């Protein structure tokens, strides 16, 4: 996929909101991005596709689209495909990487195919053999909707009795639900910006689970920057995350979530192709630690916009 700078900033439309379960987070991200663009003198306007759909966006005649639409409908390749058909440059990954990144199971299959470490998973259904799942993955385990972000619908299962109810909770968000081997250890997140890998963040949650509340509401979550790894370990983690991002076709910017087990092994958990940009979000924190303020970060992301005519 080739990529060029946005030639003209006559009008940048920030697309945010939408109808996914991540709507509220997207509204916050979009508002922060829009404000930053305006501070930089960019002719920018916000647009919520819930109000007027794709036709409403087209009527705004943007010169480029800043995608801040989290979740399905904005982060899964559908919006990206529509923008390519309209000939509109947009930020972030293209159709294939966006679709893969939104599908946790298929992301894992790609990583496994190229020999990258990611925890084993099993697809669940209401007729699953719960005992066999526990025997294969062990306890505790994670249960997740395949197509959701922001940890929506995710549970840590500590007994076989909890497994069915965790499946039911996840199935409220998605028809496809997976169980994943639980990695005991530290959680890291690594942001990528163009060709650069930003400093890793170690996430520490008093309750031990980085869920929706810990991400966006609570003030007790601790973000360690520097992350506490040695220079060699952080370089190894950065190389792994860059390889993981490239493997799914990621472009422009994104974030990889990783666990490190007690033996020091890093395990890839998932990729986020439209990361949050709220006051609690991780990419702005990593950028700030690297000396990139929020407004500069937003402009750098904008300049990675895809030229759809040369995308492949």
TrEMBL record:
Mg(2+) 2 binds at residues 270, 272. It catalyses: 2 D-alanine + ATP = D-alanyl-D-alanine + ADP + phosphate + H(+). It is found in: Cytoplasm. Pathway: Cell wall biogenesis; peptidoglycan biosynthesis. Binds 2 magnesium or manganese ions per subunit. Its cofactor is Mn(2+); Mg(2+). The active site is at residues 22, 150, 281. Its main location: cytoplasm. One of its GO terms (molecular function) is ATP binding. Keywords: ATP-binding, Cell shape, Cell wall biogenesis/degradation, Cytoplasm, Ligase, Magnesium, Manganese, Metal-binding, Nucleotide-binding, Peptidoglycan synthesis. One of its GO terms (biological process) is peptidoglycan biosynthetic process. Pfam families: Dala_Dala_lig_C (PF07478), Dala_Dala_lig_N (PF01820). Mg(2+) 1 binds at residues 257, 270. GO terms for cellular component: cytosol. It comes from the Bacteria. Its EC number is 6.3.2.4. Residues 108-303 form the ATP-grasp domain. PANTHER family: D-ALANINE--D-ALANINE LIGASE, D-ALANINE--D-ALANINE LIGASE B. Belongs to the D-alanine--D-alanine ligase family. Cell wall formation. This is D-alanine--D-alanine ligase. It comes from Vreelandella aquamarina.
């Amino acid at each position: 996929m080739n990529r060029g700078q946005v030639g003209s900033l006559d009008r940048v439309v920030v697309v945010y909101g939408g109808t996914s379960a991540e709507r509220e987070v997207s509204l916050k991200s979009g508002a922060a991005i829009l404000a930053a663009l305006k501070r930089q003198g960019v002719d920018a306007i916000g647009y919520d596709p819930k109000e007027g759909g794709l036709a409403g966006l087209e009527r705004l005649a943007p010169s480029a689209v800043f995608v801040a639409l989290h979740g399905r409908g904005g982060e899964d390749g559908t919006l990206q495909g529509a923008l390519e058909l309209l000939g509109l440059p947009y930020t972030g990954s293209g159709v294939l990487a966006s679709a893969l990144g939104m599908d946790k199971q298929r992301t894992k299959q790609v990583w496994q195919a190229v020999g990258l470490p990611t925890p084993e998973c099993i697809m669940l259904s209401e007729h699953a053999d719960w005992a066999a799942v526990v025997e294969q993955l062990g306890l505790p385990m994670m249960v997740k909707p395949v197509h959701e972000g922001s940890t929506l619908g995710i549970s840590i299962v500590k007994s076989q009795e909890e497994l069915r109810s965790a499946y039911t909770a996840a199935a409220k968000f998605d028809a496809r639900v997976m169980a994943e081997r639980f990695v005991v250890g530290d959680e890291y997140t690594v942001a990528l910006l163009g060709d650069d890998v930003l400093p890793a963040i170690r996430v520490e949650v008093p309750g031990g689970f980085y869920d929706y509340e810990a991400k966006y509401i609570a003030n007790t979550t601790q973000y360690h920057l520097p992350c506490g790894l040695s220079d060699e370990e952080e370089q190894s983690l950065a190389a792994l995350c860059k390889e993981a991002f490239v493997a799914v076709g990621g472009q422009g910017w994104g974030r990889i979530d990783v666990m490190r087990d007690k033996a020091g092994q890093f395990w890839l958990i998932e990729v986020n192709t439209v990361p949050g940009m709220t006051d609690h979000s991780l990419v702005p924190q990593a950028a700030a630690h690297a000396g990139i303020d929020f407004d500069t970060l937003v402009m750098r992301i904008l300049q990675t916009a895809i030229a759809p005519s040369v995308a492949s």
